[in-house]
Structure prediction request, 1084 residues.
Amino acid sequence: MADDKCTSCPAFNRKSLKKLGINLDNTDFVVALAGNPNTGKSTVFNSLTGLRQHTGNWPGKTVARAEGAFSLNEKKYKIVDLPGTYSLLSASTDEEIARNFILFGQPDVTIVVVDATRLERNLNLTIQILEITDKAILCVNLMDEARRNKIDIDSRSLSRELGIPVILASARQGEGIPELLQSVEDVVTGRFLCNPFRLKNISSELNYAVEKLEKMLIAEFPGMPNARWVALRLLEGDQQIIDSIKNGEISSVIKQQIIPEPKVEN
Amino acid sequence: MNESMQALIIGLSALVAMFLLIWPKGGILGLFKRITRDKKRELIEDSLKYIYNCEYNKNCLCVDELKNNLSISSDKVKNLLHSLEETDLIKTENSKYSLTSEGRSYALRIIRIHRLLERHFADQTSYKDTEWHDKAENAEHSVSFEEANRLAAKMGNPIFDPHGDPIPNEKGQIPLIEGKSLKDISAGIIVKIIHIEDEPTNIYSQLVALGISPGMQITITEKSDKRIKFIANNDECVIAPAFAENITVAELNETEQDYTGFSLLADLKPGYLATVRSISKACRGQQRRRLLDFGIVPGTKIYSDLESLGGDPAAYIVRGTKVALRKKQAREIYISDIEKEDLNG
Amino acid sequence: MDIKNSKENILNTAEKLRWEVGEDFHDNVMETIYTDAARIADIVVIKDNKKAFHLDRFIDRLVTSKWTGFPIMFLLLALVFWLTVIGANYPSGLLANIFVDFLYPVIRQYAVSFGTPLWITGLLIDGGYLALAWVVSVMLPPMAIFFPMFTILEDFGYLPRVSFNMDSLYRKVGAHGKQALTMSMGFGCNAAGVIAARVIDSPREKLIAIITNNFSLCNGRWPTQILIATIFVGTLVPAEYSGLLSASAVIFVALLGIGLSLLVSLFLSRTMLKGEPSAFSLELPPYRPPKILQTLYTSLVDRTLFVLWRAMVFAFPAGMVIWLVSNINVGNNTVAEIFIDWADPFGLFIGLNGVILLAYIIAIPANEIVIPTILMLTIMVTGIHNVGEGSGVLFELSDVNETANILKAGGWTALTGINLMLFSLMHNPCSTTIYTIYKETKSLKWTLVSTILPIAMGLTVCFFIAQIWRLLE
Ligand SMILES: Nc1nc2c(ncn2[C@@H]2O[C@H](COP(=O)(O)OP(=O)(O)O)[C@@H](O)[C@H]2O)c(=O)[nH]1
Ligand SMILES: [Mg+2]
Prediction:
């Protein structure tokens, strides 16, 4: 399916994608799939791995996280289908799984799958993810549905606003999957440097508290890339973050973030 | 014939017996639970809590009120205070009782457990607001401090209980909240409720029945010795000054004041568009978070699109997404700037 | 400053700041995020509000309108059930032909010709294999028809609208509108219905949906209902009305199940689950044209085969147990006979009998094998010789009259029939479902409640009906 659409895109060599199913040995990179429920994450996951996760037009399908693998240009990627969530700020189990994986699981890139017909609502989660991680790709899925409903997305402006690659896709038809793979490669190899959008206008009363903590965090953990997110989580009383500061686990996160070296093979 | 009659009667009585086992008020099982509790410890903890509250509110301890509060005889109160003194939990100076530092930290631990439990009942269960306090009061003696801390961690370490009281942290620190009693506010002023005292229960439940909750802005419209009138949620409420004493409020400066002329989302007819002003504080826990996640925040445009077959729930379009809300939730969302917008034309 | 202290310092500062920023912190953060999201969306989304989602809106008005909403829902669901019932007959017969009539003797012959000891062929082939074959041939076809159709409705986006419409009813009993779907799914298979309860994200309503799912008459129980209604209810009236009466009786039992599930929901939400957290959220996703082939594939793999597999895992050992209890002798009698003798007084007292009680205990893996087990046991205790295949060998008869004769020889009356129909509606879920409930709730307590509650209800109801019946007789 995916293969006959990509003749138009020169960057993609169709022979280079190998779907590896659940063969997870010796992967070089880790890709996380995040997004609201029902945006097509599992469909993207399936088309990359050749697996068949349950998909359905009904929020709440993927409950636990699913893993699979594919290889592209001789590199092996592990891909993790995270449970769909509306947000990463609450205490629900699903959100904890997704949040902790993105923060502590250290994916080399996080693909945020969003619904083109409901972009504004989906940007909520996207913005939260960009507060956590530097390496992300926005996959605007369901473009066929959007067009059918007379909606279009200006992907260049969106990419400029968010500072990450933006791919328009219709995962079910395989449209955009080659471009998505290309971006994945660009980001993990550092060919594309993300400059992610960060929240600008936190209201002034809050900003005082957030900035104060942020400064303290950076002084304590130099180079922490998502100090403001950590500050936000501290102000929300997130026990996991509190513990990870107490036991210093948070600093291991930082080291890996500054040096984006792929995990060595074999 | 006869045998089946007998069997029927025995069967029916067995059903009734089963029923009595759980009803009313937990039935015989509940009674058994109530009997086997550790009364002594409860009395000690309750009295420490009471003394702490007196000190916090800068009242001095009067033995009579302690007696009423714990509903025990005067003799028992004397014994109790005596044993508290013996165990170094309280001390007497010029015949005035006050907490020792051990006593204070014990009291704060119990208060922490109590308020965390209230918070838990408010946010993570579907018990009614009038039940939180009693449930917490019952459970606080059997929940250990560690269990309470784990509960806190799970809830994201809340800092206020649902009545607006700060929750002491693990180390027993607690901030002072400043506020005035509603009794002392004059007419024409807009204030924010920061605390509703949950004891005595009969007053509290009447206040809750008015639909007021901490965080809510109210406007005092009339004040006399006999009654206080104020507007909350667009509704006029009248209470006696004695009741007003149980409500703590903070005055607001102009920028903090909410827009007042709002209506309820529940009253928005299909085909109309409005702007969200706020979500009532009565909407809490997972429910509140869901609404926020859907993008229902102040300033959001919301369009009433459909009613279901029974009329409740109704579907609204928020940020390009169709979400169904029950009337009960729609009554907790305040809106303004209603205009007709025909998307279906 | 040493490291530990500065970390503590951060955490202490955070704690102090939290008291300053107050309770509304989360609200404010969300507001900030959405302000930015709206600004960006404004720049990049190009749409014409009047044209966008025109069709969606039209369909939505159609399916929620007072005049068309209910008929559409009713017709669609009726169509799904009708196709399932009609469509499953033939393939079920075919599978039974292959696995039971053809393969079973062949395998048995083959094993015997190798000189395999009798007890091994008995245990593995007469016991395990036959139960397995039965479960597969009765269970697979209806599920393979029902689930894909359901999944197509789901993929199209219609199911959330059903929840939307039904919520006003379910709200009144303290449940969620989505329970309408888990319940419908339960008519296919309770285990699948329990899994479907995942889409309910409010803990209390999810538990209610899971515990009450067993009151949806699953497709393993329909044949029992129909058979027993034909034999015992249909014959209460003159022949020309018997078809009508027995069909009504079956539908009555199914509707009774729906009524009970609502009643039990109400009871649970007022008592045991009173305090469980409850929140309502329901999104109405846009309609999307379903992709039929993919849907067929995933619904077959994810639902049908998944459930079937779980059932098979339980059926094989159960078949062996059935064979063992009817072949191991203690003294002069088999274990089964001893149990039946012992349980008969109680069984008869509540208008059932010992055979039925034993059958429900050993046929716990699947309701599909209850009737074959009952027949086999009845023959064993009555000593009828010319039918059946021997001790511990499940069988079913194509002739209803013959079945009726066997049952009547076993002492069955109209009361037994009626009570069996009720008991089949109200008894513990099959082991597959029980296991699934445990998997989904991860709680022993709720698994036990879902298991014991219906059986307690069933025994109670049978007891009262038996006494009243005898009083009136
Ligand atoms: N029309 C269309 N439908 C899609 C597309 N991608 C996914 N879907 C459908 O959207 C629904 C949700 O997809 P799923 O992968 O389960 O989403 P998830 O919940 O995010 O994992 C399914 O019915 C898919 O078939 C697409 O590009 N176009
Ligand atoms: Mg999924």
About this structure: Chain C touches chain B through 57 residues (CB under 8 Å). Residues A 35, 37-43, 55-57, 61-62, 84, 141-142, 144-145, 170-172; C 155, 288, 291 surround guanosine-5'-diphosphate (ligand 1) (CB under 6 Å).
